[in-house]
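Sample 3 of the quickstart, ligand zinc ion:
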Amino acid sequence: MSPQIAVLDGVTKSYGGAEVLHRTDLGFDRGVIGLLGPNGAGKSTMLRLLATAMPPTSGRIVVSDHVVTDGSPDRTAARRRLSYLPQEVGIPRRMTSFAFLDYIAVLKEWKDTGARHREVNRVLGLVGLEDRRTKRVSALSGGQRRRLALAQALMGDPDLVVLDEPTTGLDPEQRASLRGILSSYADRGAVLLATHQTEDVSALCDRVIILDDGRIRFDGSVASLIGLADGQVWIGSEVNAGALSSWRTGTGEIRSLGGVPAAGSRPAEPAVEDAYLLVRSANLIGQPR
Amino acid sequence: MSTLSDAELLRNIAAGDEAALRQLYERHAGWLLLRLNRRCGSQDLVAGALQDTFVAVWQSAGRFRGEGEVAAWLWGISIRRLISALRGHPAADPLGDDVVGAAVPVVNSAEDELLRGVEYGDVGRALRTLPPELRATLQATVIDGLTTKEAAVLLGIPQGTVKSRLRVAKSRLRDQLMPGRTS
Amino acid sequence: MTWHLGPELLDRYSDGDLDLARQSAVETHLLACADCRQLTSAKAPQDLLTDIWQGVQIATARPRMPWPLRLLRKLGLAETDAVILSASSSLYRPWLLSLVGAFVIGVGGTMMPATEQRSLYLLFAPLLPAITVAAAYDATDPIRELAAATPFSKLRIALLRTATVVAIALPVVLLAGLALPFVGADAFAWLLPSLTLTLLALTLLTWWTASVTAWVVAVLWLTVVGILRSAQQLSAVDTPFAQLAFAVAALLALAALAIRLTTHHAPGGYA
Ligand SMILES: [Zn+2]
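Result:
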């Protein structure tokens, strides 16, 4: 087995005594890995740790064969191989789009001016902001600012791309184009993204990790996640007794997740969202809370 | 898609619209590149001049006065950018025989009255009787609308030579096209 | 227009093998006919056009450096360092802050009773470099987390910013002190306290944001000046003993900063 691109080895993170990420062991290979979980589950913490934006309380983190928890030189070496989109990026408002990316490119050690400017121009095009190069950040819409923040994470040829909710604020077309971009990065490295959009996961991810309360609740392929909900989704004229969730579909029938199948209802094809809700409720696989 | 006129695009560019600059580039960069290629053999200088042209358009689109063709205005900028690039490279290849031609003048100076309203064919035939250096001088000044100083840079010859060649070329043309007329 | 460019004429024009008269006829026609321009443009090498367009995009968007940075570039400042400095606006802001500070001291000082002039000067002069260093960090604080995950040396950023700030603020405050008649012997007394406060600010920046740091340093110094003043000991600032005390404090602050740096903390965040 080839060495993994990123590894968490017994990693914990606490803030003022409260553990937000419990002892975690994970390894990441090439491909797109989706991180699902409710707010406060520890997704952002895990991504920050992997992106070397903060140190873990204990444990060992390895990125591209550099042990980032060993010391500054290794961390710097790892940072040359990764890129990171934080959940919130307050881009200085007086900067232009181009100037912001130019600054980040300098921080990413693009030393040659010509090559750096071409790279900035390339990622501006990738996120569809080629006609907003000279605009100040204050003149951009919320979605455009988000895409600008995303653009810096697409610079260069990183082994590890860490994205905290990259699809927030994107319209369906932009989301589709981002999926295309991310799959091209996943051919060369690991793309790790936290999201609330289960459609992103089913459309894009080779692997899903569900985090809750700082612990891993599920780790496997999308197919095996959906498999958990096999036989749990029903469509009929009545709500299942004890259903985890239910709603009226576009055809006027009731779709129920879990519970006792109501009379006359028939099984339906489960989706990632069904499996996610089941894992969250933990009543199917019975994991200890 | 909107189909704005060139002048409208320039107005939007002056207001900072980058998409308008892209549209203008898509419309005009191609033919400008080919025409610049007919004036200078160095691909680098031509590419640089074309880039400078659109950078200049971005910075000073508001200075287009809305009279005349945008295409002619763009050509005026780009040929002058090429000339300033040539100034920085005095050894760059001067124009040879192959870039000489003839057509209706695009400048309205009185002394070019001569070439007005004449059928292309006549001028062409007349021009072909001129030696290459005279044709090149005529093209630079009459077709491209350059001053004698600018033409001197483009052709790589002293300004005084441009003036004298121009004088000779015009009087020969006059004799051929309008033999009956006295100057 | 009675005629347009046919396919053969277009090909020959773009290949450059038209006879001279026709070439000019084509060019004259192109100036007047948008349809034929479009057909001609399609003959141009599209790869080259894409390259040139990229050049146009970069040249129009590339941020223009302020003239002091262009001057520093000529004096040998690396281009990437100049980008770092212009992103934090750490040239014009310290300049402005120092000038405003010097102005406040000058104008305020002349309007105050003689006994207060000294506390005014001792309050503002040492604070200016420390506050301006913090201000240089303020511009980039919103992207702290993003910047932390990049390989560029955080120490280098800190040194660049501090060096430029000190190089600008120091002469301004010093000249103001020498020029103002009421400052007199204090014109140099502020240097060591200022060094202490600047090092302290850099150390605090390894924990806190720029605005918090600036306030903490300012309030701290205000308290020190206030205590000295109420004890009628302001004149003690330029005694050898006080200067020695400031030197010791500066060394302590330097040691604290060094410890923070070796434990992977730098001004502005995780190193
Ligand atoms: Zn035509």
